[in-house]
Each structure stands twice: as C-alpha cells, then as structure tokens.
Hints:
Blueprint: H1 3-26, H2 44-57, H3 71-74, H4 76-85, H5 89-104, H6 106-109, H7 121-132, H8 137-154
Amino acid sequence: MNKTSRRAFLTGTTLLLGGAIFAVLRTSGYRAPIRKSALVTLSAWQYAVVSSVAQRIAAPDREGDRSIPSVEEVDVVGFIDSYMAQMPPAMRRDLLRFFAYIEHVAPLRIGLATRFSRLLANDQDRVLASIESANEGLLRGGFEGAKSLVFMGYYRDPRTWKMLRYDGPIVGRPQNGWWQ
C-alpha cells in the first residue's frame, strides 16, 4: 500500500467511524414511547420527533384547553407509524429522512444548537415556520406532507370534529331526512 492510498484509507476509516459515533450520539437518549401497540415503522427517536412535530402542528389555539383532545389522546403518532408502514419503501425512506432533518439539521439552520425534540415550544414553532417558508421547494413539500399526515391522524377521531362544527359522515346515518 503506497502512502497516498494509506492516507485515503485512514481518512475514510476515520470519517466512517466519526460518522457512526455521531449518529449513535445524535440518536441516543430518547425514551421509548408508552403505547398500547408496538411501533411498526418508527424507532424510539423517530417517535419522539414525530410526536414533537405533531404536538406543534396540532397545538390548541389556547394552551391548556382541555375541551380539545391532545395529539397523545388521539394517538396521532400511532396513526402516522401505521400509515408509513403501508407507504412504498422509497417514500417511507424519504419521510424518515425528512424527520431526521427536522430533528438534527433544521434547528441549526436558524441558530439553535440542540435537537428539535428538546427545544421549547416557541423554538419548535420557529423551526417549523422556517421549513414551511424555506426557499427550497423540497423542504416546503416535506412540511406540507408532514402537516397532512398529522391532520389526517388528528381529525380522524370523532372527538375532534366539534371544533370544526362537523357532525360526522352522512353514510350510516338514519334515513329520516327529505331525501327518503
């Protein structure tokens, strides 16, 4: 092995090991979720990120409003986890990468030096707003996709319908209207 190839080998090995150590450190320290059913797609750290994103996207207008069910009560992340399991593998991979971007890179882009899931609510809102208004169409599209998943998971629960003044689907209702 000549000097140049040895140096390239050592550099490559160092970068590979450094990247692996960085990945382990950045994805450690997450508590596994307490759920009735097991996760299908998400790991513990991904669950924490998706939960944090969902809590900010579907945040009540008034903090502490108990008349509206929380993201946890409706199990939005459980819905997203199950929904992702049915996605084509490439789409699921891209969505998981987007959630990794939100957790690790997006806060850095606005000057915050910690993970998204560890930020205070107002800082999480700033991170999400920066993604929503990013110049890169791919980031805006990722945000819109994540927002759609959160709302699909949240508003599927009948307890959330009253705030929309929605009284439920017509299908299955008693047939005592004018259309009989």
